[in-house]
Every structure is written in structure tokens, then in C-alpha cells.
Predict the structure of DNA helicase RecQ.
Amino acid sequence: MIARARSLLASVFGFADFRPGQEDIIAPILAGRDVLAIMPTGAGKSLCYQLPALLDDGLTVVVSPLIALMRDQVAQLTGLGISAGALNSSNDAAESRRVFDALRTGDLRLLYLAPERLAKPDTADMLRRAGVKRLAVDEAHCVSQWGHDFRPEYLALGELKRALGQVQTLAFTATADAATRADMVERLFDHTPEIFVGGFDRPNLMLAMQAKDGPRRQILHFLQPRRGQNCIVYCSSRAGCEDLAQALNQAGHRALVYHAGMDKSLRDANQDTFQRQDGIVMVATVAFGMGIDKPDVRFVVHADLPKSIEAYYQEIGRAGRDGLPADTLTLYGLGDVRLRRMQIEDGQASDEQKRIERQKLNALLALCEAPRCRRQTLLAYFGEQSAPCGHCDLCIDGVQSTDGTVDAQKALSAIWRTGQRFGTEHLVNLLIGADTDQILRFGHDQLPTFGVGKDHNRDRWRSIFRQIYAAGLITQDMSEHGSWSITEAGGEVLRGRATIALRADTLKAKGRPKRPVATVPDSVDSDLLAALKKLRRELAEEQGIPAYAVFPDRTLVELAAARPASLDDMKGIHGIGERKLERYGRLFLDVLT
């Protein structure tokens, strides 16, 4: 079966081989087993349910969060010669008839549905009659209240599954911590599925963070050499989106706005423009992006601090999904931290949920203040270890740091002497010698570490705890009231066998970083690449589909680099399967020759 899958991978999708992890996930799917897969954005989750749908009889239903995403995926699949359709509120009568006819005749291989449709009483009956074999849930973390983007509509999946009976279930997401994974298993599966947790590293993304120092100027400076390429800029407020988009347009960029306060028709039109055209800067709140499948976003900027590391990872993951280099920049300041803390405290969540949100904010601040490679800190949050990447801002620019071994030892000693049972605030009180009720109740005012850190204020000690967390010296159990425990590396520092440098410049703006601009290889003729993109844009406009549904950027870059002289030569290019070679090959060959 996997041999047939490889054959279709090349002939239909135009891919020479599976991406890392795909074959390991597809094999049990073809064997009929339930699967939960956590794969980094851009790792090819869609192929893991699209390819099996071609290899056996029966219908695969895909639950997907955005109408625009469904429409574009259906356009891509149809362009590959695959029978696919979507049922949603944007369908005209003719399209709905086409889909229902294909369902009745059994020709449809993939049907995309919005989660809102799951609760309709006729949905289960329709799917049973159509012979549904497989249910694939995209962005599956939305089913969990532990996830960073909980959507109540996803809870209807459980009822739909019961109504359909023994249907194979697949769930995919890019971001899920241990608590979210457990919640997904409980809500989506009748028994424990095969769970695959792929690596979280996105080596093509350049990671950078900067303290705010005139954020509008910083963003304009970042985008100036990147003019004419696809970019998303996230802002925390609707007014911030409007103001920044106006400034970008005045500076000569083509900027559009997306937020929940806009008229729906304008919001949808802007999203369609971003999906289908090149050279757009989308300035948006986090309402934009869920399910966005545009592979050639070259840059993602956060004008304000994201909500959490999970949200940050999900949002920067919308850049460089084609595997080509992409840059990210996140700006943060004390005002962002205060606002986020106020949102947590004033929110309607339970005390337990607020505690988790505070810990997640601290983990994000640890990433901002990291004293070592940015990628190492990010991956450590998800339980992965890595060597310094060499191309994040901290690896390239370095940091202003001093020997922080003694301060780290004081913090580690406070953790050790209190039994590794307490969180940051209690430990800070211990170090600065604050005789709080809790300090006195536990007798911690009698410990040798009581008051040894009076030379620093509370904010500096909080930063030290975040930094030694980012450096891997301590770890935090979010399900156990945020208590800190010492890692093996932390033990080495505590015993004086290792040293650590800590940053003194956190939350203070530095000079402009020496970040490289993501570019295509030097071997590619820029004029030829521009001509190929022009043809792609014309073909996409004729068909009313996104430009990348003709060919993604990676295909055009490979064509411009290899300069194939015949249709046979084009067969080895990434993304050119038999159907696309037949449909577009001669047109692109004319440009190349």
C-alpha cells in the first residue's frame, strides 16, 4: 500500500519523496488505525489525509475552520485532478449541486465541512448515506479548552462521531502541549489513537525579538528591504491595525486590514486578496490566520507581544510554509506585559485557568529575555533539545550579558531549600527577605537563603528566574501550581561545576539587529523568476484561484534555477505532477526558453 502511495505522491502531487514524518503517519492511516498527529506548520499535514483518500474507496470528511481555506484546498485538489468539494455558506447553487451529485454517485473523495455545520441534524444522515470512511479534524487543538484557540463548535465532533458509528478518526494540529494532547484524545477518540509528535523545529524561519523603541519606525525599517513580498503583521488592537496599515500604505507598501470589527464582506474580500495575490502586507489581529494555507508568506511581524508561546509558534508558522527562507520579528515592551497581565486578571476564567495563563505568559517572557539561542529556548518549551542554530537574532547579534552564576546559584538554592515545591513569587519573597504570611508559615525566614538577594528588586529576580528557565537550568510543572524544579544542567551550576551568563538588557531596546533578509538562491535569475510569477498570476486570475494553486514559489524557484529545456526535464521539479505538467508545462516552458 505504501508503494502505491509513493507512486501517487509523484504522479499526482509532483513530490519526489515524503517530508519527514509523513510516511510514519500515513502508514497506520492506510492500515485503518486512528491517529493524532502534532506536526509543525509547513510539515505537510494535509497530505497525510489527502493521499490516503485516493488509495481506497469511501469518503474522507475534513473538518476545517475557515471557508477561505476550504475553497483554496478544493481548488488545489481539483487542479490535481482529485474529486473534492466543500459545503459551506459561500457556495452558489451550482457548486452545491455539483458536490451533492458527486456525493450521491460516490465519486467524491474529499469533502470539507465547517465545524458549525456539524451540529445540523441532517449532517450525520447525509454523511452516512455518502459512505463516509474517514473523519479528519484539522486544527484539532480547537476542541480543547487547554488549547490556545478553543472553539465551542468543535465540541459537536463527539456527537457526530457517535452518530456515524465506527468511522476512522484522524486529528492534526501544529501546536499542542501535553494537557491539550490529553484533552484532544479524550474528546475526539473512543480509544487511545496512535500519537505522533513531530519535531517542532522550523529551520527555515529566522527568529528575532526586539524591545520596543518606536515600534512603527522599527516595523517600517524591517519591511523596507522586503517590499513587494507577502507579509503578515499582527497587532493586539483593531485601532492599532488601522493606524499601522495607513502608515504602511503611505510608505509605499500595499497593506490591507483584517479584524473582527470590520464589515464581514470587506474582511472576507481582504482575506481573498491576500490569499490570491502577491506583495500584500496583511495587518491583522489574531482573528486572522487560523487555517491560512498561503505557502509563500515570507515575513511575519508581531507589533505587540503575542498571547503565549503556543500562539507565537502558531502565528510565526504561517511564514515559509513552502520551505524557503522566511523572517520573523516580534516587538515587546513593558506596556504589553502589563496589558496581558490585566487581561488575565480581569478575565472570566477560573482561578486555575488564570494560573495557567500567568505561567504561559512567563514562559513567553523567558523567550523574549533568553540569554542563549532563541531557537534553543523555543524548542525546549516543547520538550526538544537542539544546538545553537546560528541564524536567530541572538546567535547573529549576541546579547549584552554578564556573569550571572552567583545570582543563578541564589535562585537555584532557594528552589532546592524549599523542596522544589514553590513558584516564582514565593521564591522572590524568600530572596529579597519579605516576611510574608506564607514565608512565615513555612518557616522559610529561617533558611540561609532568606534575604540573600536584597541587592536586586522583584522585577530583576523575576527576570533571572525567566532567564535560567530559558537557559534550561530549571523546569516548571504547569499542572502543579507552577512549582520550579532543578534540571541536571541547573545542578551543575548550583554545585559550581558550570557558569551562566545572564542578560542585563531585557526589556530595553538595542540598536538595529544585523538580520539577513530572506532571499532566493544567488543562482536564480531574478528577471526570469519575475516573468514566471507574472505568468502564474495571469493563469490564477483567469481561473479565479490563488497563485500558489497553479505553482508554489518553490516550484518557480526550482524552474528558474534548473531552466529545464523540455517537458520531460520538468518532471523532476518539485510540485509538478502529471496533471499540472499537462495543463501548464508548455506555457512555463515558453517563458523559460
About this structure: The CA atoms of residues 212 and 333 lie 5 Å apart. The chain has 26 helices and 18 strands. Residues 351-368 form the longest helix (18 residues).
